[in-house]
Amino acid sequence: MKRCALALALTSALPFTINPAQANTDVLHYAIGGGPVISLPAREARLDTRTLGIGWDMNLQCGLLDPKVTIQNQLNGVTDGFQDMMGNMLSNATSAVASLPGYFIQKRDPGLYDMLTNGVLQGKFDFDDGQTSCENITEEMAGVIQGSDYNLAARAQAWTQAVKTGDAVKAKSTAMKDMGDSGITWVGGKSHGGRNQPPLDAPKDAAIVGFDMLANNQDAKSKEGIYRYWESSEEMSSWLTNVIGTRSTQTGMDKSKTSATAGVGLSAEVTEQTNILEKELRLAIAENKESEHFPQLLIEAMSDSQVDDANITRIASELAISHSIEKALHARRALLTGKYEVNLAQHQLAQDEINQAVGLIEKEIDLLKFEAETRQVIGSRTAVNVVGHYQQVRASQQPTTPETDSVFLQQQLNPTQDNQ
């Protein structure tokens, strides 16, 4: 409707002194603007997913520290610590430590027993100091390394299970040995992110559960609501990943499923839909019959007006933009719905990632609108001015009736002069 109003306004404003039908066609062409509404995308195909692999090792786990190894190395002089206090005397005690229990060492050599006791205490102190430093740097890394907050959540959840034993020492040992391999409670109450578990991907998982919630009690065959564009939640999440990208992470030692995929934006979707709709429109015009997306009235109007190929592409492109924006809004609604799944709602980091995905979708929509409006304003205004100037020049060049010096013609044109 806006296109027709714009074309009528332009055609009424310009002086038509040449063929009106041809002039209307020219102005309509330039007012609407032939060809696609937006520029072609930088890439149409899906981008490959990249995983971290075994080369990435930033998963700092303090549970890997072993107090027995720490004290053993100190007593045997492998690492600095107790060795600095007792010198080379410990090298002579190594065999005794290995072969005699503590009770017999105390009986046989009380001095050696005291020395070993002090060594164990010193080693335990150094171990606690090292573990504390590890935990401190882990907290510092939480604000730097992506997914570290999930690691902290997994550690906290491991602690909640470990303390149920009632033994503080055993609880700490169990929690430290877990190292996030148990994952965290995720969508549907299932554990994700740990060893042999699905990775954590808040936007993707929220989109899937949101789709299922919106599609509840709806028939997929009806092609209504969210089923208008996708047949399943997996299909929608795949579309969303292709548009805005995705990033998954794991909480445990196994990082084989930690990956990232870049999105290609909505312009690729618009280009794909434009090609499909253009073929449908051309077939409908050729058969003079309405199609799924183009009514009979439009087909008849285009056939009678003999709209050129550029404007056919333009109409298909405009409808493709409308469909793509509608799909993006449906995906946005699925994200906002899935955001409040009871388990996802408990994780602030998941909420932040979902909000970021919603923001990316909104930004893609704004970019489409901005480019379409900018190309329309800049391209159409100049083109219409050129057409208007051209028509004025042609009008001024129209031939007029020349004056003649023939007396006979003058007498024929002015017979009253002869009677005078």
Automatic annotation (TrEMBL):
UniProt keyword annotations, A-Z: Plasmid, Signal
Signal peptide segment: 1-23
Keyword Signal: yes
Domain of life according to the entry: Bacteria
Listed NCBIfam families: conj_TIGR03755 (TIGR03755)
Protein name: Integrating conjugative element protein
Biological classification of the source: Bacteria, Pseudomonadati, Pseudomonadota, Gammaproteobacteria, Vibrionales
